[in-house]
């Protein structure tokens, strides 16, 4: 069966044209440039050109003259001397530099009506003509677009969709090969304050096609030992994994159609992060950060030439965080000019339908000394109880493309947004993207943002850490042994309590991807302003201190068969650049996974994943490390 599948796959690959194979790994902005170039530059067969009769009077006869001396987008431009031995052109050499179209005229010019035999009288001019044809500058490209009449691909098709690499800050690796199998091994999961050891068994199926893909799993954890009760309850299923309806959402890893920058994209997932537009309001928002609760979300995008929208819902089974960003390119239907056709104007709206205002607290008479402010109240499902509100942020976004070629894409943008009951923020930035290489594609993404915002506003409010910071904005310090005596406000409480002058800040992001084989990236942000809270208190009743800086670094090596590795490092709310790589602080998050597969059917894996877990005793979120080791038995194809 495997041989038959291999032969069928080989025949399929050989049947594909090199152009199709070369385009598989190209992002939307680069793919579109290639498609346009192919349409405009591929010369017609020579036999058909010779057979053309001079008496055929049609404006389409201008196209072969413009196509003859241009190269395929998958090849380097040929030097002038390379054209000397070629046969004489079938059309007049004078026509090659003429690229200005006459869109409303069906009558050819006098030179266009000359018979092709005249070209044979001047064969020496064929080579110099190549020098007069410039390479795909913005002006000529706009003119060629008009000639081609390819209105479906006219202008910019990326809209305001955020086009950073999808692996940036990811917590799980999605491979490039389909597989069916089961993972099993050891899992250490802190049941704060004790560690509990489990036998982990996880059947998994992951099927990937060109457009459609889905992955299902069934994670089961059977208790082996814990430091509190020993082997009592050995081999029992961990109840916190399946004690509420939303926990069954973890069976679905993802069901998706298309890619993020395609015209239609749908993703039902428990894995993916979400970004709206340029990331000013929502950037890499991750619904699933709590090890005891899972959310099944959906992302739905439509990206047309002239209009579109991007949307996300964090939880289709409960009160969600959601966002939507419709956009329009008002000048694209009327102009092929790059600046005009790429102008996009969008409206972003994001909200938490159940945002905590303040946690509910209960008195603990025998432990008043430990909880002077009361203990946060936790229900039977291990969830904090709180007063809530409908919190929303809305804003306007706009951008244009000033450069757009097969290899370079530069997009400046401006965003303004405001928060309910809070302040406003302004962001001006540039997204720089570069692609190079033919058989193996390389992509570089650079983002540079300047920010100006009021103290009671926070850029990228819905971020990677929102799902725990909305309950508890500050993380207790490891050195604060009396942290239970402190007061840890919700994110909304903390942000709205801030006063003072407007703040200036920046956001920088760099990403690199080598086709599907290697990727790394980093982002850093910071801002001016007071670092001390007016509400939050530590165990000694001193104001809590939180920096305005965040740092992210990741490396990914997703080789499908032999080796796959992923590492992500977060430093949140840092106060000093000198301790940005201090792993011992409580505001540090590590994610690391490694899979080694010497043969198709057998592999081994190891992972370390730090996440948040609610401590039932203190009512505070703490960072807990999960460690797993095991064997991966599966068939990859």
Shape: globular
Helix/strand structural class: mainly beta
pLDDT below 50 for ≥5 consecutive residues: which ranges?
Answer: 1-27, 32-166
- The count of DSSP E runs of length 2 or more, i.e. the number of strands, is 26
> What oligomeric state do the depicted chains represent?
single chain
Beta content: 35-45%
Estimate nothing, just give the exact number of structural domains: 2
Question: What is the C-alpha radius of gyration, as a whole number of Å?
Answer: 29 Å
**Average residue pLDDT:** 77
Describe this structure in words.
With about 625 residues, the protein is mainly beta. It folds into 2 domains: about 20-155, no CATH class; about 180-635. The chain is about 15% helix and about 40% strand. It is built from 10 helices and 26 strands. The protein has helices at about 1-15, 20-25, 30-40, 45-50, 60-65, 125-130, 140-150, 340, 465-470, 490-495, and strands at about 180-190, 195-210, 210-215, 220-225, 250-255, 265-270, 295-305, 305-315, 320-330, 345-360, 360, 375, 385-400, 405, 410-420, 425-435, 440-455, 505-515, 520-525, 530-535, 545, 550-560, 565-575, 590-595, 600-615, 620-635. The strands form 3 sheets. The protein has a 20-stranded antiparallel beta barrel. It has a two-stranded antiparallel ribbon with strand order 11-12. A two-stranded antiparallel sheet has the order 20-21. The longest helix has 14 residues, at about 1-15. The radius of gyration is 29 Å and the shape is globular. It starts with a helix and ends with a strand. The model is unreliable at about 1-25 and about 30-165 (pLDDT under 50).
